Amino acid sequence: MVHRLDVGTSGPLLVARTVEAWNWAKDRIYKRDQLRDYVALVHGSFKSRNAEGGEGLEERGVVLANIDDAGYTKYSRVEISEAAGESATTFYEALAEYQSESGRDSSHGASPAAACGGQNLRIKSSKHMAAV
C-alpha cells in the first residue's frame, strides 16, 4: 500500500503492484504532485445567481479559501481560516440537479482539485462549498 488518499474518510487506497510504481507514487505524494477528482452530492441548488431572483451557486466556479485542519475531530474536519489555514483551491462544476421526495434540492457536483504554484490544493467540499 502506498497511501490512503484521504485519511479520516472512506476514500480510496493507492496500492502499487511493483516497487517501481510504489517509488513513483510515493514521490508524487511527497511532492504533492497529484490530481484528485471527486464527485459529491451537495444539498442546495446550482441555479445561476444571475437568473431573475435566482439563488444558489453558479453551475461552475472556483473557491479560493485557506483551510485549517488543526481542530480535526470526529465531527469537524476543517475550518476556513484566513489567519491559520493553508491555501486551498476547489474547482467545481454541476453535473446534475434533482429534487428529493421531501422537496429539498440536491445537486451532483464534480469537484476536482489540482496542484498549482507549488501548493497542494485540497478539496474540502463541505467547507469550501459553504463559503461560496
TrEMBL record:
GO MF annotation: an example: pseudouridine synthase activity
InterPro entries per UniProt: PsdUridine_synth_cat_dom_sf, PsdUridine_synth_RsuA/RluA
Pseudouridine synthase RsuA/RluA-like domain location: 1-98
Lineage, highest ranks first: Eukaryota, Sar, Alveolata, Dinophyceae, Suessiales
Superkingdom of the organism of origin: Eukaryota
Name of the protein in question: Pseudouridine synthase RsuA/RluA-like domain-containing protein
A Pfam family it matches: PseudoU_synth_2
Example of a GO biological process term: pseudouridine synthesis
